[in-house]
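User: Could you walk me through two proteins back to back? I'd like the raw sequence and the structure tokens for each, with a short line separating them so I can tell where one ends and the next begins.

Assistant: Of course. Protein one, sequence then structure:
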Amino acid sequence: MLKNIFAIAGTALSAQTIRMNTTASNLANAGSVSPTEAEAFRAKRPVFRALVDQADLNAGFNTLGGVKVKEVVDSTEPVRKVHDPGNPEANDEGFIFLSNVNEVTEMVEMVAASRSFQNNVEVVTTARQLMMRTLDITKA
């Protein structure tokens, strides 16, 4: 039973780490510009999937009930087109394309991922403490 708790919390910690890393990448690229819309940086979002099927066990996961990152997708928000003919990245018409990263949204994502990560650390810590108390009781 405790093994399942550690495994489930471990998958959540891994998923939240990926979420924090994609958010950090988005913030690092928030100010990037491109000469074309196709080349503009688009914010990344991890898509989570619950591990609830027997196929998940067959795929190598230790227990059901965890979570994994199914994929990382690009945000569908439009990029911004700005007329800036003096910019060295400007196209022939003088336009640049800015990333679609919203810094406020990214900070909310970072705080939410950090809190979720901390909650799962607390789950692991509490399960460990319960396991240690159980061992202490059996010694008495």
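----
Protein two, same layout:
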Amino acid sequence: MHERPDALELITAVREFLSEHAMNELEGRTRFHARVAVNALGIVERELTLRGPACEREAARLRDLLGTEGELDEQVAELSKRIRSGELADDDEALLEHLWSTALDKLAIDQPGYAAYQRALEQREKR
């Protein structure tokens, strides 16, 4: 069933209302909490749009790295097991690339404006 507005549209509308209209009417502690709410809604928006593709990329990298199939949670558990056991060395290039890519995908959702994240993206593009 596809209803409009969908969850993403509703969240976007509330975030935009708070940041573009309500924020101007607020001050002090209430304004601070409204800003926190706006930021939280932004994270939820990005989670809804970016998480699926990020999980697909992570699962593909793990299939290549581990040579196994399974649900993402199972693959992550297997990765952790292999790192703990020493089967995957902490300087393994494929492992480091996977961990770096996973971290960047998480930052794209949680803190896309983070300066270090932006620099990392720029460096990655130069490669």
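The first helix runs from residue 7 to 25.

Let me know if you want the two compared in more detail.
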